[in-house]
Amino acid sequence: MLNRMPNSSLTQQNHSFIRTVPDTSDTLRSILIILYSIDLAGGTLGVIVMSHQLFQRRSQSAMIVIIINLLVLHTFLLLSIPFRLSYYILKEWKFGAFTCKLVSATIYLHMYITFTFYVAIIIIRLFRLEFNKCYTTIWVTAVWMLGALVIAPVFLSYYGTSRIYPSSQCFQFQQEMEETPMVIVNYCLVGVLLAVCGLLTIIQLSVMCRLTVKYWPDINSHVEFRAQAKSFFFTLVTVVCFMPHHVFRVYYIQNFHLDKDHELLTYNEIFLALTAMCCLDMLCFIAGIAH
What we know:
By secondary structure, the chain is mainly alpha-helical. The chain contains nine helices and no strands. The chain has a single domain, classed as Rhopdopsin 7-helix transmembrane proteins (Up-down Bundle), CATH 1.20.1070.10.
């Protein structure tokens, strides 16, 4: 009897400890709900107001063409966010396997096509390139066709098909990382995005430093400096929104097999939600940070 009492007491203490420790998964899920709610509210407001402003301006410049396409791209993302919020709030996916893959594809297509448009804006402003509306429309259309007619069908046809996943779960395709082609594709995407981000950031910073030295102390009164400052805004968005996800992606690929409690998966989803924060860029357009 004396030998049993310590064990019983220890068991009670363990149960008490378990009850007092917060559920980490619930905490991380709450962060996802907050991030996507901010994306949905801020992104919707930005798209609506910016659309109204563009309709009033009716400009036909190359930059406006790119901004209009960013609006359309953000709209597709915003339409997919309620599905994600429903899943994180209800803890159950109710929309079928195809819709799950479609929503998953949407956020990745949004991220990489938005990144392409950002790079185009940065390069145009950085090197003062001039493109007419026709030329800009052609290459923008080519980007859309590559995403919609090539990348999206391949993603929907093959991603999430090498394993059988419960219909009540979604965004949990981590076992796909056991496939070598998927690992190679992910590493290539990470390498390209980080290299482009790093190169453009270095060039942009060097230009900003040169203009600061040249025009100091009245830097804000010079059109050239203000133009590069607006370009630097997009560089910051790519660094803040896109780079963390891709840096973590490398760690995730190397350690996902150790993720027994799916915490790494949830952290990956949080970094993915951060990429969707770029849809708030339209609020910066409206505020006059970029135009």
